[in-house]
Every structure is written in structure tokens, then in C-alpha cells.
């Protein structure tokens, strides 16, 4: 075995790395995939790590197919955690009282689509640069 290759430990296999974006701020942390807890605990954790305890949020994530999906209950929270590979990318937005409290709002959908397009473009450029080496 090559000395640069790593064999993942059981501990790292059970951890889910989370990258959370709120405004221009990013936060990274990990969760135990086998004990994700409840959505309301996760929601409180997001408010804590972003230091926004009194801000109501819309939480969305990019799934393995690139679809932008909401996390707003235990079921879709557990689905997001169980399918994250290797990273769970979260997009947070302050709830807008002028829109219904879900991720189907035009503003949030446009925001997530723009972010996702930028991520895809960056990956494409990086792959082209690697291919030209």
C-alpha cells in the first residue's frame, strides 16, 4: 500500500462533515452519522455555530444529484445526513416574513440556483486546469 493512501477509521466513516453558509459566512463542523439527533437540535446548532441565536432560518442542502432540497423536519434531516458523501453542503437564509416559510420561495430558489451554478463552474474550471497539466 502506498504510504500516502489512508485507510479510513470507523470513526471517520461515521462522521459527516458539514459546510454551512449563511450570507458571506461559512462554518464547518462534523456530526455523528449514526446519531444525528433531531432536526430541532440541529437547527439550534446551526444558529449557535453561526452566532445567530434569535434569527429564524430556512435550511437547504445540495443532494448527491445536485438538487437543492429543504431540511425542515426530522425525516429530511436524517435523509440529508445519511446520504451526505463526503460533505453535506448547507445553505441558510433568514426567513423573510413576506414569503411563505418554505424553500419554494422564488428568492431562496434563485439564491440556491445561483450558488450551485457558481460551484459547478468552479469545479469545471479546476478540472480543465488539472487536465491541461
Automatic annotation (TrEMBL):
Keywords: Cell junction, Cell membrane, Cytoplasm, Membrane
InterPro entries cross-referenced by the UniProt entry: PAR6_homolog, PB1-like, PB1_dom, PB1_Par6
UniProt xrefs under PROSITE patterns: PB1 (PS51745)
Gene3D superfamilies: Phosphatidylinositol 3-kinase Catalytic Subunit, Chain A, domain 1
Residues covered by the PB1 domain: 15-95
One GO term describing the cellular component: apical plasma membrane
Pfam families with a match to the protein in the record: PB1
Compartments where found: Cell junction; Cell membrane; Cytoplasm
GO biological process, one term: establishment or maintenance of cell polarity
SUPFAM superfamilies in the cross-refs: CAD & PB1 domains
First-listed, main subcellular location of the protein, grouped into a coarse class: other
Identification of the protein by name: Partitioning defective 6 homolog beta
Protein source organism: Lates japonicus (Japanese lates)
Amino acid at each position: 500500500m502506498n504510504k500516502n493512501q489512508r485507510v479510513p477509521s470507523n470513526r471517520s466513516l461515521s462522521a459527516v462533515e458539514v459546510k454551512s453558509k449563511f450570507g458571506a459566512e461559512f462554518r464547518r463542523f462534523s456530526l455523528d452519522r449514526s446519531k444525528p439527533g433531531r432536526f430541532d437540535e440541529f437547527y439550534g446548532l446551526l444558529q449557535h455555530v453561526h452566532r445567530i441565536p434569535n434569527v429564524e432560518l430556512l435550511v437547504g442542502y445540495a443532494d448527491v444529484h445536485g438538487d437543492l432540497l429543504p431540511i425542515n423536519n426530522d425525516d429530511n434531516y436524517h435523509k440529508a445526513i445519511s446520504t451526505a458523501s463526503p460533505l453535506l453542503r448547507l445553505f441558510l437564509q433568514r426567513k423573510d416574513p413576506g414569503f411563505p416559510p418554505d424553500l419554494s420561495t422564488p428568492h431562496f430558489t434563485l439564491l440556491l440556483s445561483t450558488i450551485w451554478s457558481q460551484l459547478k463552474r468552479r469545479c469545471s474550471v479546476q478540472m480543465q486546469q488539472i487536465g491541461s497539466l
